[in-house]
Amino acid sequence: MQLSMITRLPLEVIELIVFFLPNKDRIQCLATCKAYYAALYPILVRSVTIQYRKQFKQFLTMMVRHNLGLHIREIHLKNRVGITQQEFELLQRHCPYLEILKFNDWRHYKRPTFQSFQYLQQIPKVYDRFKGLQVLLDRGSSLTHLELSPRVVRDLILERLLLPFLTLGNRLTHLTLDGYYSPNSHAGQLQFDYMAWQLLHQSCPHLTHIQMLTVNLKASLAQVKQMATKDHTHGSMTSLVLREVCMDNPIWLVYLAAQYPNLTTLELRFDLDAFTNYDESEEKLSRAGCSAGFLGLANRLTRLHTLSLQCLKGSHFPGELFFDALTHRGVRLQNLTVRYNTDILSRFGLNKSILKAIVRGQQRTVKSLHMDMWMNAHEHFFELLEQLSYCSRLASLSLASDDFGKFNYNPIPLDTILSACPHLQKLELIRTALVIEDKHTSRQIHPLKSLRIAISRVSESLFVYLTNRCPSISHLEVVTSYWMPREIEMRIDMPNNTFDYVRISDLNKLNVPGLEGNLCFGTSVNLFAVKQLNLLEKHQMRYSKRDDINVPEDLTSWYHLYEIEDERRLRYPPCCLRKLHRQEVDSLKYLVGFYKTNYYREQAGTTGFIVDRYVSKKNWRDDVRFGFVSLTCKSVRTLKYNYNIIDWPSQE
């Protein structure tokens, strides 16, 4: 393509081209073609994301110097990036066409700030009622997205001003309300009856997305009759998310489905005591009414492609009939989440018949499936995987064991899961004891890219298997898990993987193997090492340029989490991070060898609950006996260990 043709391309066409290019190709295009750069630059600065305060200052300087504000439409400021009143005024002066402005610090906001943003559509979550009122008074005619925090919602409900407050945003399409939860008093909680729900749509007639957290849906006997006969619908609504929801009548299930027949996304996460009280001695909702309500919901919502039902009770949810009704109505789901509330008292959750009903109707379309494994599923695990193997487009899978007490002793073969689901790209396993049954399957390369393991049993052989079979894993999380067999050196050797993100959190704090095979509470591991194979050559060249004779044989980076001895310091995050010196690393290796030879380390957790144990910087040797984590990989971009984050620059 000639340069003259590139310069004549409209910006909309260039934006579509650039949208599908990776970052490396964008950089090459910008470096090799100035004409393309001139036409492309307005698209590059259309959306700006700032992670650090220094970046924000540099951005403001460039914006003023090169007059970039006219091209900017979105600005996203991350958590630690504050904004002052002068910077508000600067954006107001130079970015008149701004549509999205997201930030976390409302301290320096004052009334006239948003008046000049005539096209502003999205603002950050509102935590102050008066500042939120000022924003709606200034830009209520243009705002399309509004999020209110629990404190704001509670204050508005106590003064009965919630619906009048929302009427100021007459063009809202996305509304998010976080309710306030109090175990002692219902005052200030987010509640809607039939009339209030109707007034909500009258106040915001253009809504397409509603999301509420901790909400109570009520209806009197007279309102129940009206809800059963009401035929008015809101066809513009496409997404409904209700979390921690309670209902005093199951008619709400049928009513919501009848009101929103064009829903494509539905998420219902019920409260823990929504159906029965804690010990199941009293039913708050009738079983027959709930079954009829869920079946009515399945028969009315024919355009769903994302469905999430969580904290269900097996006694109130007709699982097999529900999914058969979806199949009969021709509903083809792409994303499905089914989670039951199965505690010690209630053991009735997902079973084989419900899973077969899901697979019968959704095996050709479902891409993401989040579900529980029923009691004793490990005994017939191949039957569960046989059903999942029929899902030919399954790319994301989340499995969680319902056996809360004995899941540690019920092995789940990870290699079998990968063999049964050859198209998986994202896998999450919760409350599992992971093992490898057939190590020879490691030669069969699997396209898995993301793996999250939580509250599970892991071992060194598990990660050795993963690096051979899944070299494409770039996202790894090991959260609240424990290492077995118990070792002072916990090695995550994955030399074939290039990681974008690795998270290791709360390792060996729960379910640590103790005396006589019993499980006990452990102590946090505060020492960890990172070895990046792609950086070894770079480090060796650095030593050779300095003519340093004492080149270390092992160029592994060692880190220690420690506590600052300052009573005035807020203890969040509860620890700090530092890198160990070469002499300290030699001392650490000596201590590791000593503890391996003389294995009389304290049995962690036998004296009681040990949640976090952080020592001072100079006493780091006291943490060696509790073990350390060693990560080996090609490279890693971001590592989050407990509460601390380490970023490495990108490597070509």
UniProtKB/TrEMBL annotation:
Gene3D superfamilies: Ribonuclease Inhibitor
InterPro entries for this protein: F-box-like_dom_sf, LRR_dom_sf
Transmembrane segments: none
Protein name per its UniProtKB record: F-box domain-containing protein
